[in-house]
Amino acid sequence: MKPNTTKIINYELIASEFDWKISEEKTIKAWGFNNSIPGPALKANKGDTLAIKVKNNLDEPTVVHWHGIRLPSSMDGTDDVQRTIQPGGEFEYRFVVPDAGTFWYHSHQNETVQMERGMYGALIVEEDSNIVTDAERVFMIDDMKLNASNEFKEGNFFQRWFERHDGRQGDTLLINGKENSVIEMSAGQTERWRFINASSAKYFRLHLSGKQFKIIATDGGLLERSIDASEVLLVPGERVEIVVGSFKEGDAFNVESLPYNRMSTIKPKHDVYATVRIGATQPTKAFIPEHFRDIESLAIQDATVTREVKFSVDPSLKHGIDFHVNGDVHTADKPVYVGELQVWEVSNTSLMDHPFHLHGFFFQVIEENGKMPAYKAWKDTVNIKPRSKVKIAWMPDNRPGMWMYHCHILEHHEAGMMAHFEIIDRAKGPMQHHHHHHLCENVPIKSPGL
Ligand code: C2O
Ligand code: CU
Fold first, then answer.
1. Measured from the CA of 237, which atom of ligand 1 is nearest?
2. Alpha carbon of 323 to ligand 2 centroid (Å)
3. Are residue 148 and residue 275 in the same domain, yes or no?
4. Where does residue 308 rank: exposed (0-12), middle (13-18), buried (19+ CB within 10 A)?
5. Mean pLDDT in the chain?
6. Same domain, yes or no, for 138 and 279?
7. CB distance 71 to 360 below 8 Å
8. Are residues 27 and 163 in the same domain?
9. Per-residue pLDDT tens digits for 395-405
C-alpha cells in the first residue's frame, strides 16, 4: 500500500470590503481577501491537499476559482458546480495540488466588479527540482480605473459601452496592490520572479528596461529548458516565471510593460509598474540547470482537429455588438469524453485579441497560424490574435463534470464570450442535473444561509 504522506494545509480566506492604501496619496475602498490586495499567497508542495475555507463578508454572493489547478469539477469554484457563497456564508474548498507552478485564485462571480476591486491572490505550488536561486518573488500585475477621488465608478452610457468593448483598463498600475513600488535586490544575486496577470483586460508586455532574463516556466510549470528573452507578453490570466540577474551595484531598471496593440480603442502605451534598485553585493548560491524536465508532446502539429471553437464579435441590436463563442452567448458546447485526446482549433474571427482560458486542464499549443510554437509548454491561457487560429491539444483525464472555457477579458466573459461543457466518463454516463448552471447532487454544499 502507498504510505499516506498527503499533507493537508489549511487556509482561511475572508472576503470583505476594506480600506487599501495603494500609495501614500491614494487609499481606496477595496474588496479582497484577508484585508489585503492581493490576498495571501497560498503555498503548498506538489501533491499536498489544500483545505481553504472561504468566508463571505461582502454584501453580495461570491465564489472562488483556482485558476490553473487540475482539481475535481466540484471544486472549480464556478456557479456551474456549486451554489455561490451567500453574504455571511462560507464554503470549504478541498483539493490536491497535483502540479508545481504559479497559479492564482480569484472571484468568479460578478468578476468585472469583484476582481477589479481586488479579489485575487497567488497560489504557489513548489516543485522538486534542482533550480536554486537566491530569492523568489511573486508579482501580481493589475490596473485599476479610478475616478479623481479614487473611487471605482461606473461610467456613463458611452464609457460603459467602451468598457464592454475594450475591457476595463485604468491608469492606476499595481504590482502586489501597490503603485510605484521600489524593489530592492542585491548585486551579484540571481532571483526567481513569478508574474501573474490579474488585470481585467490589460495586456502586460513584460520588459525590464532591456535587461536580459531567462523564461523558465509558464502557466503549467517549468519549461524543458530556459529561454533567453528581454520581453514576454502576459495576457490576462497568464503566468510566467523568469530568472533575473545578476546585476551590478547601483544599477536600476523598471518593471514595465511595452506598448501592445490589442486592437481595442485604447491607445497602446509604455507603462512603468515598479522600479528595481540594485544594492550592495551579496554572495550567491544560484544554480540554473541546463534541462528542467521533459514535456511529452500530446499531439503533432497536423493532428486531426476534433473540435472547432470560434470566438467572434458580431453586430447586435441590443448591445451594438455581441461577444460570441460559436455564434452564441454563454453557450453550451458538446461534451468531451474521459481519455479521448482533444485537438481544438480555436479561431478568432474578430478584429481584436482575446485571451482563451480553459478551466481545470492544461493544453499544449501545437500550432499558431500555421506555425509550430518555438518551445513546448503547458498552458491554460493563450492569446488569440485577431483573425487567427491556434490549435491546442489536451487530455481530459478522469475528472468528469461541468467545465468551461472563456475569454479572460472579464468584460467579454461577462458579455457572453464563454462556453460550458461536460466531461463524461463513457462507462458511467453523464452526471445528473448538469444542464447549464445546475448542481450535481454529489457536490458538497457547506454554505449556510441558503
Ligand atoms: Cu481565471 Cu474562469 O477564470
Ligand atoms: Cu475577449
1. 1
2. 7
3. yes
4. exposed
5. 94
6. yes
7. yes
8. no
9. 999 999 999 99
Ligand number, closest to the Cα atom of 353: 2
Rounded to whole angstroms, how far apart are CA atoms 119 and 107? 6
Of 254, 289, 324, the residue at which a domain comes to its end is: 289
High-pLDDT (> 90) share of the chain, %: 89
* E-only strand ranges, 317-407: 320-325, 331-332, 336-337, 342-348, 354-358, 364-368, 381-384, 388-394, 401-407
In the chain, the number of structural domains is 3
- Note whether residue 266 is domain-resident: yes
Which of 244, 259, 289 is the last residue in one of the domains? 289
User: Each residue of 140-163: pLDDT tens digit?
Assistant: 999 999 999 999 988 888 888 999
Q: Is residue 301 part of a domain?
A: no
Give the separation between CA 271 and CA 32, rounded to whole angstroms.
25
Same domain, 255 and 360: no
| pLDDT band with cut points at 50, 70 and 90 for residue 389 | very high
- Looking at the structure, do residues 280 and 214 belong to the same domain, yes or no? yes
We report the CATH number of the domain holding residue 425 as 2.60.40.420
Strand partners, 29: 19
Determine the distance separating the centroid of ligand 2 and the alpha carbon of 356, expressed in angstroms.
8
Distance 255 CA to ligand 2 centre (A): 25
Per-residue pLDDT reduced to its tens digit, 46-93: 999 999 999 999 999 999 999 999 999 999 999 999 999 999 999 999
- Closest ligand relative to 358 C-alpha: 1
Which atom of ligand 1 sits closest to the CA of residue 67? 1
> Which residue's CA is the nearest one to ligand 1's atom 1?
67
Output the CA 32–ligand 1 centroid distance in Å: 16
Least confident of 77-86, 251-260, 351-360, 423-432: 423-432
pLDDT of 438 strictly over 70 = no
Q: Is residue 300 part of a domain?
A: no
295 within domain boundaries: no
How far apart are the CA of 206 and the centre of ligand 2, in A? 20
Ligand 1 atom nearest residue 406's Cα: 2
What whole-number distance in Å separates Cα of residue 138 and Cα of residue 161? 34
Q: How far is the CA of 408 from the centre of ligand 1 (A)?
A: 6
* Residue among 271, 231, 278, 233 at smallest CA distance from 253: 278
Structural domain span for residue 213:
132-289
What residue's CA is closest to ligand 1, atom 3? 67
Give 441's pLDDT tier (boundaries 50, 70, 90): very low
Residues 271 and 319 in one domain: no
List all residues whose CB is within 6 A of at least one atom of ligand 1: 65, 67, 106, 108, 237, 357, 359, 406, 408
Distance between CA atoms of 395 and 423, rounded to whole angstroms? 11
In this structure, the answer to whether residues 149 and 222 fall within a common structural domain is yes
